[in-house]
């Protein structure tokens, strides 16, 4: 099992940037593909981005492609989400997740991102 703690959320104006971090502890971090998800008020949780165990493969939802970048440093047990050109519709609680196979299995508590217009 792995424990995940997100940080880096906050309030930012439209067009601004934030970098989210997710620190992992427990079982070996490099064994897990990692992902970011988000949940806006009144909406279901949705996929944002995913990164392979080695970091060589990345995948993005179309809504964030070209604006967000997922990365990881296995030596630091940390995965990041660099968010640029933020829009009000990016406002949500952002969660990181560790995958078992193709399913996100372990979740952090989330960090709030608010983008003002």
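^ Assign residues to that structure.
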């Amino acid at each position: 099992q792995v424990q995940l703690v997100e940080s880096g959320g906050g309030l930012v104006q439209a067009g601004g940037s934030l970098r989210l971090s997710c620190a992992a502890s427990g079982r070996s971090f490099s064994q897990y593909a990692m992902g970011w998800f988000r949940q806006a008020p009144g909406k279901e949780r949705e996929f944002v981005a995913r990164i392979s165990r080695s970091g060589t493969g990345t995948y993005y939802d179309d809504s964030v492609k070209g604006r967000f970048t997922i990365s990881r440093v296995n030596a630091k047990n940390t995965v990041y989400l660099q968010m640029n050109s933020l829009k009000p519709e990016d406002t949500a609680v952002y969660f990181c997740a560790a995958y078992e196979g193709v399913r996100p299995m372990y979740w952090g508590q989330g960090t709030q991102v608010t983008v003002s217009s």
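The mean pLDDT is 96.
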